[in-house]
């Protein structure tokens, strides 16, 4: 395996978490309005880190990447995290 192959494997492994976190953050902004005190970039970054942790956990637990259960957990974790970030800081403000 060449370094190009390693690079593209890592990109393709991380891409679902990065794209989903981008979509979830945009959805959260549209759904809840611009009431959150956390900047858009930081919410995206927290969602992306949480999504990458889920993908890595799925890889470790199932010994295979790309399982549908892992992708389901990815959606649930990112959506719950975005909801918690929106609701938790909206109530304080």
Note down, in words, how this protein is organized.
With 93 residues, the protein is mostly helical. The chain has one domain. It has helices at 3-32, 40-62, 68-92. Helix 1 (3-32) packs across helix 2 (40-62) and helix 2 (40-62) packs antiparallel against helix 3 (68-92). The longest helix is centred in the first third of the chain and has 30 residues, at 3-32. It is elongated, with a radius of gyration of 15 Å. 24% of the residues are buried. The mean pLDDT is 89.
Summarize the structure.
The chain is an all-alpha fold and 93 residues long. The chain is built from 3 helices and no strands.
- What is the number of independent domains? 1
Oligomer: single chain
Helix-and-strand structural type: mainly alpha
Content of β-strand: under 5%
The unreliable regions are none
Helical stretch tally: 3
Principal-axes geometry comes out as elongated
User: What is the string of SSEs from the N terminus onward?
Assistant: HHH
Helix content: over 70%
Annotation, overall tally of beta strands: 0
How far apart the termini lie comes to 52 Å
Mean pLDDT: 89
Sheet with the most strands? none
Could you tell me the radius of gyration in angstroms?
15 Å
């Amino acid at each position: 395996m060449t370094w190009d192959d390693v690079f593209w494997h890592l990109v393709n492994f991380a891409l679902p978490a990065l794209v989903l976190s981008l979509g979830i953050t945009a959805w959260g902004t549209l759904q809840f309005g611009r009431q959150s005190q956390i900047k858009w970039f930081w919410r995206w970054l927290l969602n992306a880190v949480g999504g990458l942790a889920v993908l890595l956990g799925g890889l470790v637990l199932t010994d295979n990447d790309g399982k549908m259960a892992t992708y389901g957990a990815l959606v649930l974790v990112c959506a719950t995290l975005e909801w918690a970030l929106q609701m938790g800081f909206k109530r304080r403000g």
